[in-house]
Each structure stands twice: as C-alpha cells, then as structure tokens.
Amino acid sequence: MSIDTGSISLEKIEQEYTSFVGRKIIFLIVLLLLIVVLIGVATTLGIIDLSVLEVYSVIFHKFLPQYFQVPSEVADQVVWNIRLSRILFGIFAGMGLGIAGAVMQVVLKNPLASPYTLGISSAAGFGAALAIIMGWGFFGNFLIAGNAFIFALISSMFIVGIARHKGATPEIMILSGITIMYFFSACVTLLEYFADPDAVKGVVFWMVGSMGKASWDKLGVLACVLAVCLPILIWKSWDFNIISSGDETAKSLGVDVDRLRNLSMIISSLMVASIVAFTGTIGFIGLVAPHITRMIIGGDNKYVLPCSALVGGLLLAGADVVAQNIIPPVILPIGVMTAFMGIPLFFYLIMRRRKGYW
Fold first, then answer.
1. How many Cβ atoms from other residues are within 10 Å of residue 268's Cβ?
2. Does a cis peptide bond (omega within 30 degrees of 0) precede residue 329?
3. Is residue 287's pLDDT more than 80?
4. Where exactly are the transmembrane stretches of this chain (predicted)?
5. How far apart are the C-alpha atoms of 188 and 318, rounded to whole Å?
C-alpha cells in the first residue's frame, strides 16, 4: 500500500533512492576496475615491452605460484623492482590527496578548499627548500622528506590552533590557510633569491613534484598512514553529511562541530604531509577529484569519500603515466602534468555544473 504525499508516493521515493544508491555502487565498482586495468596497462609501458598478460602473470605468481608462471626473469625484475612500486605509490598518493580534498571541502564548506590552497603544500615546500639550500632540518638521513613532513604538520597545527582560539569556523580556517600559503611561498622565494643556481634548481624540481623516488619502503609507510586515516574519515561520513546542512543543525543533532572540524583537518593534514614529503608539491588532485565525484554521484559523503580517493588515485597515477611517455625518454614533472590535466578539466566541470550537486 502506498501513501500519497502529493504527487509522489512513498514507493516511488523508495525506488528512486534505491536506484540512486545503485548508481553510486556501480560507480565505485567501475573505479576499482579502472584501477586494476590501469595497473596492468601502465606496467607494460617502458623501454622493455611487456604484455598485459605477462604483467598480471608476474603479479599473480607472487601470491599463487602454483597457478601462474613468470614469463622471464627480466619481466619479473622490471615489474617488481622498477614499475609496479611507482604505479602503486601514485595510486596511494592520489587516494590520500583526493579524500583529503573532499574532507576539507566539506568541513570548510568551500569548493576551493584543498591541501594546496590551504597552505599545507607551501609549508612542505619551504621545509624542503630549507633542507636543500641551507642544509638545515630534521632526520639527517631523510632531511628533505623529514623537513617537508614536519613543516606541513606545523602549518596544519597553526590552522587548528587559530581555529581553537578564535572559533573553528570555516572562514577562520580558510583565511588562516591562505595566510600560511602566502607566507611560506614568500619564504621560499627569499631563500631562492640568495641561493646558488644549483640549489635553486633542486628546489624548483622538488616543488613541481615527482614520483621518481617511489620505492616499496616509502609505499609501505604511506600505506600504513592511509590504513589508519582513511577508515576514520569514512567512519565520520555521516557527521560530514549532517555538517553540510549547517553548523546549527549539526549541533542540534548532537554533532560536536568544532571538534569534528579540527579532527578532520588534523587527519587530512597528516595524510597530505606523508604524501608531499615523498612526492613534492602536487596540485589539483585534491581540488578536482571531489568535484568529479560529486557531479556523478551527488553529495552523500558515505560514497563521496571512498570514490574521491579512487578518482584521485586514477588521476595521479594516470598523469604519471602520461608524464613518463609523452616525450620519451624525458620524464615530465608530475605537478606540471596534473596542472595541465586539472585546469581544462576544472573549467569543464564549471561549465557543466549541475545546480545543487554541491
């Protein structure tokens, strides 16, 4: 029996909701399949030609040696020691940037919020520049990465500290982030002004981002950080949905808005700091990935967060593949490729924007 609610019955509402949820689940499955395909295709590209079947045979042989055979020793070495770690690192880094951008946009209620625009990447860049030019910093064996990590965390702690002192409103946090971005950008410029050309070249190379230093050890560190941070953020997805309707509404429903905002920023900043410490500054992934996701499946953060992570992984890993193969043997900086890919894509999203998706 249906209950008439004007022109729309309860049964019709349920059918539409079920259909909408189904579309989100299908989108999530498609993203997972695309990542699997990307891993196979990207690993075939390079000086040594490999087929997709050879790549998957090498990968599955590691886990099921009784069912799969390695085509050759060369293929095994190329896949495991050269290509696969870089591809997986790009996917994991993109996942962290994508979900961090989605969370920042929700809690700050600003579609332009991202790790880059909030100054976290600029602070990491200053830490790296300090290590490259002056030789100052933390963790002697990992001077550049350690500096980038520490300064990225310092910037996020400053934003959270200001928010706690003045109130964790979106406006306060965004203005604090913009201030930090300009401050550290000016500091990097000042360091470069007095540095010798070789050191400046190193800073510029780091600032545009690179996957060239990806390794299994670094991938393990990043995977551990994501394994801790991602479940917490996804677990808070219902609170993010509530906070989207307004702070007062969220407070009336029992959500501690200030605590949620600060916790989300801390966790997101930890992920971003862990990523940029190894890759350098990478823009647009954290900005564009959440928008692509919301335009396709809507604003339900229960699905937006994991899908934004997968979209970010696809974008970053795909950009790295293009950067390696567009002008061989030259490998273009990944930050340049994400900018070239992100700018037209972002303009397309603006022109095709559906009212209400945000």
1. 27
2. yes
3. yes
4. 25-48, 87-108, 115-136, 142-160, 172-195, 215-235, 269-291, 303-323, 330-351
5. 29
Instruction: From residue 178, give the alpha-carbon distance in Å to each of 29, 113, 117, 118, 336.
Output: 36, 10, 7, 6, 22
User: Helix, strand or coil for residue 97?
Assistant: helix
C-alpha span between 278 and 274 (Å, rounded): 7
Give the pLDDT confidence of 110-120 residue by residue, as tens digits: 887 888 778 88
CA 248 to CA 141: how far, in whole Å?
Answer: 48
* CATH class of the 85-351 domain in this structure: mainly alpha
- Give the separation between CA 309 and CA 31, rounded to whole angstroms: 10
Q: What is the mean pLDDT of residues 30-51?
A: 88
DSSP class of residue 50 equals -
Task: Judge whether 148 and 213 are in contact, CB under 8 Å.
Answer: no
Backbone phi and psi for residue 209, each to the nearest 5 degrees, phi listed first: 85, 150
Asked if 120 and 152 touch (Cβ cutoff 8 Å), the reply is: yes
Q: How confident is the model over 309-330, as pLDDT tens digits? A: 999 999 999 999 888 888 877 7
Q: Is the pLDDT reported for residue 207 higher than 50?
A: yes
List C-alpha distances in Å: 272 to 32, 114, 229, 311.
22, 10, 11, 16
Decide: 239 and 260 in contact? Cβ < 8 Å.
yes
At 275, list the tokens: 């990523």
Angle between helix axes 84-108 and 10-44 (nearest 10 degrees) is 150
Per-residue b or e along 76-105, where b marks 16 or more CB atoms closer than 10 Å to that residue's CB? bebbeeebbbbbbbbbbbbbbbbbbbbbbb
> How many degrees, rounded to 5, is the angle at CA 263 between CA 179 and CA 245?
85
Number of neighbouring beta carbons within 10 Å of residue 250? 19
State phi, psi for 51 to the nearest 5 degrees: -90, 165
For the CA atoms of 87, 89, 95, 100, the dihedral, rounded to the nearest 10 degrees, stands at -150
CA distance linking residue 324 with residue 321, whole number of Å: 5
